[in-house]
Amino acid sequence: MIIMVVGIKDTSKLLGILVIVFCAVLVCTMFLNYRMDLSAMEQEITFGQMRIFYEAQLSTATVVCAVSGGCLLLTSGVMLLFYIRYYIDTHKKELGILKALGYSGLKIAKHFWVFGSSVFLGAALGFLGAFGLIPSFYQVQNADQFLPEIPIHLHPSLFAFLVLLPTAAFAALAVGFAWQKLNMPVIRLLKDSLYHSAKSKKRKTVPVSSRPFLEDLKTNTRRDKKILVFFILFASFCFSSMTQMSAGMKDLGSVMMGAMMLLIGLVLACTTLFLAITTVINGNKKTIAMMRVFGYSQRECCQAILGGYRPVSYVGFALGTVYQYALLRIMVDLVFRDVEQIPVYRFDVPAMLLSLAAFIVTYELVMLLYSRRIGRISVKEIMLE
Predict the structure, then answer these.
(1) Distance between CA atoms of 288 and 263, rounded to whole angstroms?
(2) Considering only CA atoms, which of 300, 62, 276, 85 is closest in space to residue 173?
(3) Do residues 244 and 348 lie in contact, with contact meaning Cβ atoms separated by under 8 Å?
(4) Are 320 and 238 spatial neighbours (Cβ–Cβ below 8 Å)?
(5) pTM of whole model > 0.90?
(6) Which residue of 259, 289, 339, 344 has the lowest C-beta tally within 10 Å?
């Protein structure tokens, strides 16, 4: 029997995937269950504003699930592939020894199904959590009594579609991607230098004398970790879009919807940001330690390693602002255009400024927290690893 390649300590890093899948399944379960229960009452809804509101509610459920659920699940997939690649890159020698002992890449890759366990846990918790909120959600959706009372039903097909299917798909994705990454000569796994030198030959480098060392290090750190750029962009995008959208729910939706959006946005943003920055620092520990030895201050180390991501975060905030405005305009002007008592939606400048101020404070506090962590990294710590 082959020893377990992936341990509990490694899967604990998948907290971000669990949180994102939880949020995706929570939202999709509520809206899809509502859509299915509402569709079952179609024969009772035949005329006037009732019919218009009925069609608008169906369209809303479809749009929310397609946009929010699809985006979150796609992000979970990207994060899963990133962690598998990160694990393989940091365990090349151990995996190379297993291949040298005669284990095939596929046999080793089969153990990576455990990376999909976080998907099952997040999806199951999201599904159960949704049914705790559904009674209140149904009341909120029909607060103006446009429709008859909608009975709540449990649809087993939703459990299969939102919990079992994603779990199987992510487990298969994990095994397939790990197999593809392990499909290389044993010598390349055993000797990292061969792999890195092959990559470095293909990359154009900027002459050392063309710009200061710290500026060059900042640029290279951001360029070498492109997937982390995406995560930080996504974190600021979630913060911006969800906080601003929640502010508009008092007029367009309900306090419950606003609170739910705010909570989901903050959880997604903080989880993704912390995981991304932790990965950046862990991947640059040796560089930080050597910089401290050569006399660079804690502030200079932090600026060189993390400073390059600050512009990315503000780009993400801007994209989130545009996204939430476009989505709400689509909902109001297209989906609910024929429904009475729906107010005209205009861009909320005060909410945007308040969200921006909160984002700046939150982001800089996170940077301060991690700068202290950088200050605690020593050469001794690196040598003992």
Answers:
(1) 35
(2) 85
(3) yes
(4) yes
(5) no
(6) 344
